[in-house]
Amino acid sequence: MASLFSGYFAGFSSFFTPYTSITMILWIAVGVFLGIYLGAIPGLSVTMAVSLLISFTFSWDTYPALALMIGVFTGGVYGGSRAAVLLNIPGAPAAVATTFDGYPLAKKGEAGIAMGLSTTESVIGGFVGLLCLMLFSPLIGRLAVNFSARDYLLLAIMALFLVGSLSKGSLSKALITAFLGVVVGMIGMDPVTAQPRLTFGIPNLLAGVNFVVVMIGLFGMSEALYQLHYCMKPVKQKVQKILPSWSIIKENLPLALRSSLLGMIVGALPGTGGDIASLIAYDHAKRVVKNPNRPFGEGAYAGVIAPESANNAAIGGSFIPMMTLGIPGDSVTAILIGALTIHGIRPGPLLMNDQPQFFWMIVGSLMLANCFLLIFGLTGIRMFCKVVEVPKHIIIPVIVVLSIIGSYSINNSVMDIYLMFFFGILGYLFKMHDFPVATMVLGIILSGILDTNWRRAMNIAHNHFGEFISGFFTHPISLLLLLLIIFVAIPKSKKQKIASLFHRKSGAEA
Known about the structure:
The chain has helices at about 20-40, 45-55, 60-85, 100-105, 110-145, 150-160, 165, 170-185, 210-230, 245-265, 275-290, 300-325, 330-340, 350-355, 355-380, 380-390, 390-410, 415-430, 440-460, 465-475, 475-490, 490-510, and strands at about 190, 195. By secondary structure, the chain is mainly α.
């Protein structure tokens, strides 16, 4: 494998190509700007935007076409945080975790601080992911390709243990909603036998329930119903200062760097992405931050910093398997592979060896996109904050209309609107009875990974359960993930007891 990357640094001079072309600088800037504002609209996903750009840029030269797509990708992942903070509606799946503390900050009149933090931390995460893409692509690419179906299954199981962190109250309620999410994620055609599952004879359910539709209903429509029920008054926002203070950034910099590394690693695993990365980073923050400025779920700065740095770091991570192995890291990079193929470029080890200039051009474009993200991300915040101050008799109908448009635009299906209303009412009932909706979203995200990789792992083990189990102890990555799951599953009180016993024993020996 090492020989495949012998020419890895040969095309480094192409890193500066985006900076020497006015056209490319312009298209990257336009892409980031459009991505931010498209990402803020629920239902208009980054994947949809990039897929539409393929036909739009078909006749373009390769470099400008890629520059525009990279800009939209970078801006879109960040843009979802704006609707998450202001309306409690994640504009993108990667912004789900941002709602947990971003929206409570807006309700306290600190939407400006929340969006300032999301911008700066997204840029930090983007640069960390980019640095890892530059320095460790061949190494991480080799690691990612060694992940088997059994390892992805363990990774999904480990992510399911996040229900304890995503629930504010009863763990049993969190487990119930997570289980419901897994069930909803299994609706549709069986991926192996193609038999209908849980469709109840409704043809429109054969394609499954789109995750974004559920997300819009659980967060957007339910929030509109909840605010109608309690007649909540608009909160005057304090936006004297947009940039967060240096003390906040400095205090939380270690958390941002750790979350960025987590996001990059998760993003580098094919089939994952910023949504899972941000949830894992949020769980990490809840476990390691001892004295947050407020409790998590009530406006903790760390609750915005961790997911926002992780989901943007996952962008750099997702390019690693795409460029080094020709395997998409997420849905957007899968589309980018198609775009590169249309332009006569095939990502993979041979590209890294024979035409490394394309790799370095993409790295340079990502770095420039992050710079524009900081500029455009910090502009318009004062205008956006006015959204929270709009009277409820105006903003609630707007939320409903956006939810309907966003749901319909995904598949141009009226059925998706009905499903959105169903999950909106369900989410409203959950909120009324203190059932966390975030854990249901987590269950839906992980359902496909659990189902597909369980079947693949069992097929590899020739449907022999003993052989399947033994693989956990004979494969190094599986064993490491298994130990991590055991560590995560141990309650915090038990960990403290084990640590105190260890310290006592060490003191006695001394």
